[in-house]
From TrEMBL:
Any one Gene Ontology cellular component term annotated for this protein: plasma membrane
Gene Ontology annotations of biological process type: response to antibiotic
Record Gene3D superfamilies: MFS general substrate transporter like domains
PANTHER family assigned to the protein according to its UniProt record, in alphabetical order: MAJOR FACILITATOR SUPERFAMILY MULTIDRUG TRANSPORTER MFSC (PTHR42718:SF9)
Domain Major facilitator superfamily (MFS) profile, residue spans: 16-463
GO MF, any single term: transmembrane transporter activity
Species this protein is from: Streptomyces chromofuscus
Name of the protein this chain belongs to: MFS transporter
Localization in the cell: Cell membrane
Pfam families assigned to the protein according to its UniProt record, in alphabetical order: MFS_1
Membrane topology of this protein: Multi-pass membrane protein
The keyword Translocase is annotated on this UniProt entry: no
Length: 475
């Protein structure tokens, strides 16, 4: 082991945590910075609205597949090493996108950036390894909340950065921050105390990638191809077959990408389903609401906002998300995690319904987003700690990694569905109609209602119980 890594043992856990939080923040920032500038990026790349939506979808799809794979590689080769490699890949993908002359290379760069999705499960695992057990739940909650807050910050600062340095700076600046995080991680994060030599199941990886692609592509294109056309139905059937095969392979694997046995715990599967459904609304709103507010009023809706103004409209969500995340642990301790998640889910439904029916004034948008921020801030931190309480200590990292991953999968679905709905309500060479956004937000509200119902099924921990999860092999 090189002396540089060996000497890192002298760093305190607090220093390690700060470096990990920097990595999480840098990842979240790059993930969200381009959301408000999609219309400008579409013009810059001379492409269509349908293709520019894949700038988000390609990233989320890649992250959905790469997140569990990178987590497993961390178990085998060392979380510290794989974290640095993930950050390098994230920076490399950002450079590719920053220099892309057309949409194809832009999408290629976004796919490479999706490898950075592994930063979250690796962070959770390193926190579990390096921090005292009693501090683990709080630290994981902070990391989960920071991932959400970083996304909000990216939306807010995208406009000023674009005005000052140009649209491609939205890739160059986070790339520089990611390089700093990679160097700091190499110096500070201690080597993993344990390794597992079991190889990654590449068959499960291919099957997972296959069913996600087969599901998302027709979802995004169904409005153009027709819901009953073979081009839509055949991929859907293929997605079902591939997903079934993936589940079978995962259940038989000693080291599955996503542990199906762990998911049998009621607390785990309900929390993960709530996370997926929250991801549907979060990523779709973050991707398309900036486009809505930038639409010229001549279209019958929108405010003709600049990129900076669009970001400022989303600022209330970022602020309330951060503040709510800080208070979530106290709320869960007083009222119980299930009640807190049910309340957060209800607030999310109210917020998305408000966006669907009341979006004629800027204050209406800001108020709905502030309410959504409260919902998301409470929910994300609470879900992380529900998982911590529901599994064995050695499963903390992988279990929270799964929760983050299914949220990303939900985001992939949400963006694809919203893109498809808007596509169905967009005339040739025109802008989406207002009804497209109304129907789209209404569908997101349906996902929110489903999250509310599932949250009510989360079991209440028995007094004195430390875990609710079954005894399953660690991930």
């Amino acid at each position: 082991m090189p002396p540089l890594v060996a000497s890192s043992r002298s760093f305190q856990p607090r220093t390690t945590l700060l470096v990990l939080l920097l990595a999480v923040f840098a990842f979240a920032l790059l993930q969200s910075l381009i959301n408000p500038v999609l219309p400008a990026l579409q013009e810059d790349l001379d492409t269509t609205q349908n293709l520019i939506a894949w700038v988000m979808t390609a990233f989320l799809l890649s992250a959905s597949v790469c997140t569990p794979v990178v987590g497993r590689l961390g178990d085998r080769y060392g979380k510290d090493r794989v974290l640095v490699a993930s950050l390098i890949a994230l920076a490399a993908g950002a450079v590719v996108s920053a220099t892309a002359p057309d949409i194809s290379l832009m999408l290629a760069g976004r796919v490479v950036q999706g490898v950075g999705g592994g930063v979250l499960p690796l962070t959770f695992g390193i926190i579990r390894d390096e921090l005292p057990r009693e501090k683990t739940p709080g630290a994981i909650g902070v990391a989960a909340a920071l991932a959400a807050v970083g996304g909000g910050v990216g939306v807010v600062v995208a406009g000023p950065l674009t005005d000052a340095f140009g649209i491609r700076s939205l890739f160059w600046i986070p790339a520089a921050l990611i390089v700093v995080a990679a160097v700091a991680s190499r110096v500070v994060v201690p080597p993993s105390p344990a390794r597992n030599p079991t190889p990654v199941s590449w068959l499960a990886t291919v099957l997972m990638a296959g069913w996600l692609v087969a599901l998302l592509v027709p979802l995004a294109q169904a409005s153009r191809w027709g819901w009953t056309s073979p081009a839509v139905i055949v991929p859907f059937l293929g997605a079902a077959a591939l997903a079934t095969g993936w589940v079978v392979v995962e259940k038989r694997s000693d080291r599955p990408l996503i542990d199906m046995r762990m998911l049998r715990s009621t607390a785990v599967w309900t929390t993960n389903l709530v996370s997926l459904l929250f991801g549907v609304s979060l990523f779709a709103v973050m991707a398309f609401l900036p486009i809505f507010v930038q639409t010229p009023p001549q279209a019958g809706y929108g405010f003709g906002a600049s990129v900076t103004q669009a970001g400022l409209l989303l600022l209330p969500m970022t602020v309330t998300m951060f503040l709510a995340g800080l208070g979530s642990a106290r709320l869960a301790g007083r009222f119980g995690a299930r009640q807190v998640l049910v309340t957060a889910s209800a607030l999310n439904v109210v917020a998305v319904v408000a966006l669907a029916v009341e979006h004629d004034r800027r204050w209406q948008i800001a108020a709905a987003l502030a309410l959504m921020g409260v919902s998301l801030g409470i929910a994300f931190s609470t879900m992380s700690n529900v998982i911590v309480a529901a599994v064995r200590p050695d499963q903390t990292g992988v279990a929270n990694g799964v929760t983050a991953n299914v949220r990303t999968i939900g985001g992939s679905v949400g963006v694809a569905v919203m893109s498809g709905i808007l596509g169905a309500h967009t005339p040739a060479d025109g802008l989406p109609s207002e009804s497209g956004y109304t129907y789209g937000f209404a569908v997101l509200a349906v996902a929110g209602v489903a999250a509310l119902l599932v949250a009510s099924l989360i079991p209440v921990p028995k007094p004195g119980a430390t875990t609710q999860g079954p005894a399953v092999p660690s991930g």
